[in-house]
Model the fold of this input.
Amino acid sequence: MGSAITVIGLPVALGIIMFGLGLSLTTGDFVRIGRQPKAVSIALACQLILLPLVCFGLVLLFRLPPVLAVGMMLLAASPGGTTANLYSHLFRGDVALNISLTAINSVVAVITLPIVVNLSLGYFQPGGGQVGLQLAKTIEVFMIVLAPVALGMLVRALRPGFAAAMDRPVRIASVIILTLVIIGSVSAQLDVLTANLAALAGVVVTFCLISLGIGFLIPRLLKIDRPQSIASAFEVGLHNATLAIVIAQSVLGNIDMSLPAAVYGVLMFPLAAAFGVLITRGSAKAQPSRSSE
Done:
């Protein structure tokens, strides 16, 4: 079962998810980045610089075994995805900003993800191999991340009516597929996961909550409006667990390395929902005071 999931199921599932993402993107989403550079720059700085540093500190603090430490760093380097867009919509974030951030993150991750993973392998597992700096691996990551997105964008450009009609079904299917992939990965390695759950739960929950908090609070402190800060929170805080699992199992060939992403993929849904309720409630309480001024 584990082999079938790794070789066939994971790449196909990720391809469907990324294709669905592409159906929601246009070239205008990339152009929009230039129109709101401050919000985009702050969110990207949180995503690409702060989170790997935070994750590295947490990995050392929780004293994870090397293979799980690299798995956590791989998760931290993974971009946001369709789940971030969904939560942003539910909790009144700037979904257009989410789409723009997801678009640019999907491109940038082809470069940054291999760099973070290689540095992590060099630190935690010297001589343990590389991903990304090798040409073949770079092409593999590129194809996994960008090819389905580009295909989805092409379909939208050629058949906008079809893309619009498929947007909601594909979003629902993406969430279902993501859930099934995580369940399948967990089931395939249940014994190993159970043995490492105590070590992983604390660091995964802490990382998820800190990621959401950084994505929301730093933009707010830098005078970014609430809807854009909410969008930033979910984009920064909700990583593409499926991508991390695929890279770990299909590219790096290490199932154990995918365990942090599998645990994260299960826990991020309730954590993100609780966070969304918290910041929405805070906004509702602040509203009367502003209106009375």
Q: What stands out?
A: The radius of gyration is 18 Å. DSSP finds twelve helices and no strands in the chain. Residues 289-293 have pLDDT under 50 and may be disordered.
